[in-house]
Amino acid sequence: QVQFVESGGGLVQPGGSLRLSCAASGSIFSIYGMGWYRQAPGKQRELVARVTSGGTITYIDHPVKGRFTISRDNAKNTVYLQMNSLKPEDTAVYYCNTNPPGPWGQGTQVTVSS
Q1: Does 24 or 60 have the greater pLDDT score?
Q2: Which whole-number Å values give the CA distances from 26 to 3, 22, 47, 75, in the listed order?
Q3: Strand pairing class (108-112; 10-12)
Q4: pLDDT value at residue 2
Q5: Long-range contacts of range 25-30, CB-CB < 8 Å, 24 or more positions apart?
Q6: How confident is the model at residue 27 (pLDDT cuts 50, 70, 90)?
Q7: Dihedral-angle region of residue 8 (phi above 0 means left; psi in -120 to 50 means alpha; beta otherwise)
Q8: 13-26 pLDDT tens trace
Q9: Which has the closest alpha carbon to 6: 92, 113, 86?
Q10: Percentage of residues in the chain having pLDDT higher than 90
Q11: In degrees rounded to 5, what are phi and psi of residue 63?
């Protein structure tokens, strides 16, 4: 079973950027499709972007298109989410997981505020 440790969150001003990282345990990471999810206060967790084991990328949450970029490095068992032009509505706890998801990690808090 793959486990995840997310990092890279923080407080950023509107228009700023953050790069989230997700380190995955397990030697078979490369066979999984991966996703970044987020849960805003008072809302359900939602899939933001996903990348298949073969590298095909889909952005599920349309407002992030053109601003967020998901990528993976199978050699490092790591998935990234580059977030640019951040908006207050991007404030949430961000999680990575397989797609479809398994057990959740701790996530990393992203707060966009002036």
Answers
A1: 24
A2: 7, 13, 22, 12
A3: parallel
A4: 74
A5: 25/77, 26/1, 26/2, 26/77, 28/2, 29/2, 29/74, 29/77, 30/74
A6: low
A7: left
A8: 999 999 999 998 87
A9: 92
A10: 64
A11: -60, -15
How far apart (Å, rounded) are the C-alpha atoms in residues 17 and 3? 26
| Positive or negative torsion for Cα 54, 104, 19, 61 | positive
Q: How far is 60 from 92, CA to CA, in rounded Å? A: 16
Round to whole Å and give the CA distance between 104 and 71. Answer: 20
Burial of 65 (0-12, 13-18, 19+ CB in 10 A): exposed
Q: At which residue do the structure tokens 């969150």 appear?
A: 9
* Averaged pLDDT, 49-55: 88
How far apart are the C-alpha atoms of 90 and 92, rounded to whole Å? Answer: 6
For residues 98 and 29, the model is more confident at: 98
